Amino acid sequence: MIRLDKVTLTYPDGDRRLVAVDHAILTIEHGKVLGVTGPSGSGKSSLLALAALLIRPDSGRVVIDNVDTSTLDGDALAALRRDRVGIVFQQPNLLPALTAREQLVVMGELSGPSSRAHRAARRRRADALLDAVGLLGQADRRPAELSGGQRQRVNLARALMNEPSLLLVDEPTSALDRERGAAVVDLVVRLTHQLDVATLLVSHEQSDLDRADAVHTMVDGRLRDDRSLLSRPRREEDACTTDERAHASSAAGSTTHRALPRAERSR
Ligand SMILES: Nc1ncnc2c1ncn2[C@@H]1O[C@H](COP(=O)(O)OP(=O)(O)OP(=O)(O)O)[C@@H](O)[C@H]1O
């Protein structure tokens, strides 16, 4: 669970301060997707950076799983981010030399013990996550051998490697065509529900947010609760299935949180 409690962030702007996030209030419970949309420059990336604990607010509190992060020093903040937050950036940023499986395993190794048993557990979890995003068959491929949509799905699986309770997704479809983008958003929503994470999905593409549990619009740093999107009828194409989408969806549907092997990190 994440809660932003009247969070404000400003940047230096000449001899003044620019208010990028203005007293933002939001809560995302486990198993829910909150979509945030808004025009360019409205503060969406700044909001994500605050939720990711990459930047401290000027005022207000960011609370993750009942931990008031304003009370934490830099090391504790970094540890909480590593243990509880998964981030899917706009561009996959995969390491060119590593296979899909290795991208995930390396993520687990950054924070976990290095015994043989732990390494085996991480590999099992990596394979289960690749299966959940429909890519187990491509586990040994490097990024250059994957499509854009497949790279973004590896990116999503990697973000879930450390069993985060908060998943932050930044414009996941910006580099993809409509169908591949829809497949990635489908996966984000399904895995949110199945793995019981709290997900903040930022997108300027309103169709990406049709499947969110709630939607807020950001304008000039202010968040507005905008539930009208939720009552919009689903379009035909939202229900359509391309091969990729159907495969991704059914793969995710066959996995449950309990069924996924744990990475066996020491928390
Ligand atoms: N590091 C910074 N220093 C100063 N101003 C910044 C900085 N980062 C962002 N801003 C300003 O803060 C405001 C919010 O920017 P932000 O990137 O959060 O918006 P956004 O909604 O994510 O935009 P986009 O959709 O174009 O990515 C903008 O006016 C931007 O110019």
TrEMBL record:
GO terms for molecular function: ATP binding; ATP hydrolysis activity; transmembrane transporter activity. Gene3D superfamilies: P-loop containing nucleotide triphosphate hydrolases (3.40.50.300). PROSITE patterns: ABC_TRANSPORTER_1, ABC_TRANSPORTER_2. Residues 2-245 form the ABC transporter domain. Residues 226-247 have a biased composition (Basic and acidic residues). SUPFAM superfamilies: P-loop containing nucleoside triphosphate hydrolases. InterPro entries: AAA+_ATPase (IPR003593), ABC_transporter-like_ATP-bd (IPR003439), ABC_transporter-like_CS (IPR017871), ABC_transpr_LolD-like (IPR015854), P-loop_NTPase (IPR027417). Residues 248-258 have a biased composition (Low complexity). Pfam families: ABC_tran. GO terms for cellular component: plasma membrane. SMART domains: AAA. Keywords: ATP-binding, Nucleotide-binding. Residues 226-267 are annotated as: Disordered. PANTHER family: ABC TRANSPORTER RELATED, IMPORT ATP-BINDING PROTEIN. This is Putative peptide ABC transporter, ATP-binding protein.
